[in-house]
Amino acid sequence: MRFSRTSKALGVAAVLAMSLTACGGSTGGGNTGTAGGNTSKAITANGTEPQNPLLPANTNEVGGGRVMDLIFSGLVSYDAKGAIQNELAQSIETKDSQHYTIKLKSGETFSDGTPITAKNFVDAWNFGAAAKNAQLNSYFFESIKGYDKVSAEKSTLDKMEGLKVVDDTTFTVDLAQPESDFPLRLGYTAFYPLPESAYKDIKAFGENPVGDGPYKLAAGGWKHDTSITLIPNDKYNGPRKAKNGGVTFTLYSSPDAAYTDVQSDNLDVLDQVPPSGLQNFKTDFKGRFVNQPYAGNATMTIPSYLPEFKGEAGQMRRQAISMSINRQQIIDKIFYGNKKPAVDFTSPVLDGYDANLAGNDVLKYNPTKAKELWAAADKISPWPAGKVFTITSNIDGAGNKEYITAMANQIATTLGIKAQLNPIATFKQSRDLINSKKLTGASRAGWQADYPSLYNFLGPLYGTGAGSNDGDYSSAAFDAKLKEGLSAKTVEDGNKIFNQAQEILLKDLPVVPLWYQAVQGVWSNNVNTVEFGWNGVPLYYNITAK
């Protein structure tokens, strides 16, 4: 991003963005093909059915997220290495990291030709924050002054006092406290603008959205549970201009079927090889694969509302379950060594990552200690006779069924209890069940970064009331550390405080960290210039057909 000279956030954001040194490219051979190609031909990729209608403030999962990031653009976006670049922002200025003046590029429009103005941003952010609209990404606006009032339960307020429209191309943002990394967040889905037409029937708009990104939804393009077809948006003038004739996402229920299709050149890009292909994908796709770490992790959520996991006994049970999991064995046997056991709640590719946090021994395989902790918990509050520890997960994702079954077996063997996978057919169905807060056991979880920051792996997931806080975890001490870290003068100082917040999580274990993610992606003989970004997502707009 090109900030003006008055912005103190320039050095902060640049340092953080350029810190993604582990995401440079393939680690196992293969190349991204030759430049050029047929820019008028569409490409195909795998996808999953979005959980909800396509609204910026209500999309917080990968199936909808990858579509949203192509049909919308915000003030900024992120390049392949995670560095921020201007989209609609002309400048983002601040003298104190609390009061921001944002100027838009003039002449930009939505895909229907409607001008994009400052009001489109302010209205969209207010809509996303207001409690009455019940948007999953509401939490992302918590930094803005007045969010606490509009987001309060049963609040009828719909405008945050920290947002002001100055003119058609200028608006101001006042935060509740100084936050030096605020500009870095502004490329995330929640901060996209909406045209005024959206509010006439917001649900209908979500089924057929009008965006401002490099693509737009084709007429009748969303065939639920089957495919989503995007075509280039000729009104888009940003840095992610489409180099192909469109992207069609085929919504697979089986990752193995997707792998077979890309092998036979019936699918162009697959963003995650299933376990059945991990042993041979490098030879199956010579010169057409990538194997690289990205800003993502896998975890298991144990909801705070489960009675067996409350209080001191519950804390010991969480620790016992964590220590009963042999992460490296699962990685070796199921993922063929293509992941790395987690020792914290974030990702090694991020600036500020610390592999030596106090208390992270709880994430190491220790069956003896696990049995001791489980027995100690039983003395306080016995585990219900015959109760099965279930782990809910969709089984349409690559490796979910295999690794959770193996993990359940390890837990059962070590702790002497019954444990098993609770299979859900699709990702959308599993997210609906998890969001209902009615689980009777644990659930599969994980995080793909929204923007390159330690905070993004902490606040949205474990902050009290956060939209992606699946387990309803709440800790006043943790919330206070988040607030302290956000208000730090530099990202480096903030990261030290965020790691202190992680030490609280290591005691409470609202989720059990499992491993850090790496993307094993492959592509067909029909495409060129395939590159995967810092967050493990292909740069679809850059792919060309042969």
TrEMBL record:
Compositional bias segments (type: Gly residues): 27-36
Annotated Pfam families: SBP_bac_5 (PF00496)
The Solute-binding protein family domain, residue ranges: 84-468
InterPro entries per record: Peptide/Ni-bd (IPR030678), SBP_5 (IPR039424), SBP_5_dom (IPR000914)
GO annotation, cellular component aspect: ATP-binding cassette (ABC) transporter complex; periplasmic space
Molecular function GO labels: peptide transmembrane transporter activity
Polar residues: bias regions: 41-59
The protein's name in its UniProt record: ABC transporter substrate-binding protein
Protein source organism: Arthrobacter wenxiniae
